[in-house]
Write a structure and sequence with these properties.
The complex is a heterodimer of chains A (620) and B (144). Chain A has 620 residues and is α+β, with helices and mostly antiparallel strands. Chain A has 10 helices and 26 strands. Helices cover 23% and strands 43% of the residues of chain A. Chain B is mostly beta strands. Chain B has a 4-stranded antiparallel β-sheet, with no helix packed on it. In chain B, strands 4, 7, 9 and 10 form a 4-stranded antiparallel β-sheet that branches. Classes of the chains: A alpha+beta (620), B mainly beta (144).
Chain lengths: 620, 144
């Protein structure tokens, strides 16, 4: 049954997909089955519908009509389609996100309901936990960032808010899994969350004495507060106080230090290193992008200049363009500063021959800039190079500094590289000395990294000395770390090497606690024989408020380890010494010395004599 | 503190000093009889103490009249005197004697320690039986 509405738009009541959009207070209802490509229908009616659509389309601004059409014809989510109405990326994402906010909620019940072979059903109420799943649309260029953020909270209890107004969509727990359906400009994130169990701690099981068969013991039970029952296998008749004393013995505490505390601190340092590596990778990627864009800078800049008025309309971009133009002029000026000198110098090295040497000196300074709607890049390279190439040798000296900067919507990078190099190559030797420094800062939405690296190297054939220091600070908002690593290394050939490594790290780790650690390693190796010394110190205050501090010295010459550990934990201070020892001065012990063995004559020495035969003593 | 050196009216050495019988050592103005044990002991430290325990099982053909001595480097540190006169002509008296000495203040190093017995029974020789012993122990401060 067909009807014509007063506004001329036709619809069929029994096959209607009603889309109502309030535009100018007027409701539009259309029959999508009449639109070509949307299904079979009456040809004339379809033409009528198309005519109506064309007419209505002329009333509506193009971008609004596009939204309407994308939603009605192409089944796009309203928010996703509506995101095209704004040029602001944040608004686009916010608008698009709305349509995918339909989270699902539920619980996981851990109760047991089992029916045995006799039909007896056993019900054990147990804990239950919330679960939640949600979807969101995200910008495709932000996929890596989102995935990184979610991955960063793996195995970290977190509060997940599906909707702050609905308790069932507020879950404290872990994400179970997530996936991203990557689209061209927008991607769809699917995330499922598992909460912690909501059950209370079960009350302790108590059985009244009247329900217990047998003789009731005096005082109701064995009083183990004073002494453990002698036939209790768990403690083998050892008094309870002794068991407790043993538990806090130095040996056990040493084990705790070695097996729990130090590994925890090492774990925090490893996590810090992982975060540093991640931040470095991001900085490397930014630098790679910067270099790639600079390689293509000529083309990009030309295009920007040619299409500036039509393509770049926003004030920021216009300003960037102006800066680019200005920088181009600066580039030209800087090029004039470049200087180069070459000479061929003939000289006589003997009576019967003449050789020549080539020398070159170059001083250059270049500046490059690039700016478009998405990024701004600047680079300056200053270089001084001298070369000498003769018959028997070639030398080179180079002093350069490269400074680069990159700014984009969600990341920024600054880097400066300084290098001083001198080298000499002859037919039978290669000599090189090098000093380098790299300073780098990198930020994005969830990571900040500052890093400075210094290197000094001197080498002659297979002998080398090297000194390097890397200092860095990094944070992702929850985790923060500062670290200084230095290495001193001397090596001749493959068999002789001496090395000192020092590392100091300060960490705030939301999973472990607050940590500091310093480690110094000394290592000498000669033809496979190795001697090492390690000095290590650390402090840890974990999330439970338990504090531990330790110092450990270890020496290993290959024939046995000497180790001194000092630490302070919840039981007090302690130390442990492994290896033969000697105290040159006096030793004062306020407590008790306990030992199962003492050395010969440590406490007393004795001599025993026995008369082998009787003897006679005369009078007087 | 050693028990005073016993002096008897019939002591053949009274007022004489000199050597005792049987090759025993001598001290200033007294006779210490026959040496039963003589040992050189290397004392490890000055602050320690020496504990000396000498035991002898003795037999006499008549009365039990004798004295025992512990000397260190010639100085007398302990004596023990027995004077038991029995009724018979040949009473065959027998008894053991144990002399302990606890000595402090000795310097570290070697010291000569002698356990000796002097027979004061004029009616026959005193026999010291085999198996008699002497123990010398340096008690260091941790053991004192």
């Amino acid at each position: 049954m067909m009807r014509r509405r007063p506004n001329g738009l036709t619809f069929r009541r029994d096959a209607r997909v009603a889309i109502v959009s309030r535009m100018g207070g007027k409701a539009l209802v259309m029959d999508l089955t009449r639109i070509p490509g949307a299904g079979q229908g009456n040809g004339w009616a379809e033409q009528e519908a198309l005519d109506d659509l064309k007419r209505i389309k002329s009333y509506i601004p193009a971008k609004y009509w596009a939204v309407f059409e994308n939603v009605c014809r192409f089944d796009e989510t309203a928010g996703f389609a509506g995101s095209a109405l704004t040029d602001c990326r944040n608004d686009q994402v916010a608008t698009a996100r709305v349509t995918e906010g339909s989270a699902t909620s539920g619980i996981t019940d851990y109760s047991r309901r089992e029916t045995d072979e006799f039909g007896e059903t056993m019900i054990v109420p147990r804990a239950w936990a919330k679960r939640m799943a949600g979807k969101a649309l995200i910008r495709t260029d932000a996929v890596d960032q989102v995935v990184g953020r979610i991955a960063a909270v793996r195995a970290v209890p977190s509060l997940w808010l599906g909707d702050a107004g609905l308790d069932s969509l507020i879950v404290y727990g872990f994400f179970k899994d997530f996936s991203v359906e990557v689209g061209e400009t927008l991607s769809k994130l699917t995330l499922s969350i598992e909460g912690f169990s909501e059950a209370k701690t079960p009350a302790p099981l108590t059985i009244p004495w009247e329900n217990v068969s047998g003789t009731k013991p005096t005082e109701n039970a064995d009083n183990t507060a004073e002494n453990t029952s002698k036939d209790t296998g768990a403690v083998a008749g050892v008094p309870a106080k002794q068991v407790i004393a043993d538990a806090v013995s130095v040996k056990q505490r040493s084990d705790i230090l070695e097996n729990i505390t130090i590994p925890a601190i090492n774990s925090a340092v490893a996590a810090a290193n992982a975060l540093i590596r991640t931040a470095e990778a991001k900085a490397d990627a930014a630098l790679a992008d910067l270099n790639a864009k600079l390689l293509a800078s000529g083309i990009v800049l030309d295009a920007a200049l040619a299409n500036a008025d039509s393509k770049l309309v926003e004030a920021r971009v216009t300003a960037d363009l102006a800066v680019s133009r200005a920088n181009n002029r600066i580039d030209a000026a800087m090029t004039d500063l470049n200087a180069e000198a070459k000479t061929w110098v003939p000289y006589s090295a003997g009576n019967d021959r003449t050789v020549t040497a080539s020398t070159r000196a170059l001083v250059s300074s270049t500046a490059t800039t690039l700016a478009d709607a998405d990024s701004a890049i600047g680079r300056r390279i200053d270089t001084i190079t001298t070369d000498y190439v003769g018959r028997d040798s070639a030398t080179n000296a180079r002093v350069d500094q490269t400074a680069s900067a990159l700014s984009e919507g969600d990341r920024a990078l600054g880097i400066r590289v300084d290098g001083v190099v001198a080298s000499l190559a002859t037919t039978d030797s290669a000599v090189r000395a090098e000093i380098g420094r790299v300073e780098r800062t990198s930020v994005d939405r969830d990571t900040a990294l500052g890093q400075r690296s210094d290197t000094i190297t001197a080498s002659l054939n297979d002998a080398r000395g090297r000194l390097s220091t890397v200092e860095m600070a990094v944070t992702d908002g929850r985790f923060a770390a500062a670290q200084r690593v230095s290495n001193l290394e001397a090596q001749v050939g493959a068999d002789l090497s001496a090395r000192i490594d020092q590392r100091a790290t300060a960490i705030v780790d939301p999973k472990i606690g607050v940590v500091t650690q310093s480690v110094t390693d000394l290592r000498s190796a000669y033809n496979g024989t190795v001697a090492t010394v390690q000095q290590q110190a650390g402090t840890l205050v974990d999330l439970a408020g338990k504090a531990t501090a330790y110092v450990r010295l270890l020496a290993d010459g290959g024939n046995g380890v000497a180790r001194l550990s000092l630490w302070s934990d919840q039981f007090g201070g302690a130390w442990e010494l492994i290896g033969d020892g000697r105290i040159g001065g006096n030793l004062v012990v306020d407590g008790t010395i306990t030992s199962t063995k003492m050395g010969a004559s440590s406490v007393q020495q004795a001599m025993f004599l026995t008369l082998p035969g009787s003897m006679s003593i005369p009078y007087g | 503190m050693a028990i005073p050196y016993p002096v008897y009216e019939d002591d053949p050495s009274t007022g004489g000093g000199g050597t005792g019988g049987g090759g025993g050592g001598s001290g200033g103005g007294y006779v210490i009889g026959t040496t039963i044990f003589q040992a050189t002991f290397n004392k490890a430290e000055a602050n320690s103490a020496l504990r000396i325990l000498a035991y002898a099982s003795l037999q006499s053909p008549d009365d039990l009249q004798f004295a025992g001595y512990i000397t260190i480097d010639g100085a007398l540190y302990q004596t023990g005197t027995v004077n038991i006169v029995l009724d018979l002509q040949r009473s065959s008296g027998a008894m053991p004697i144990t002399l302990p000495a606890f000595v402090t203040g000795l310097a570290a190093g070697n010291h000569t320690i002698i356990f000796s017995i002097r027979n004061l029974e004029p009616d026959g020789a005193l026999t010291v039986l085999a198996g008699s012993t002497m123990e010398i122990t340096e008690l260091k401060r941790a053991a004192v």
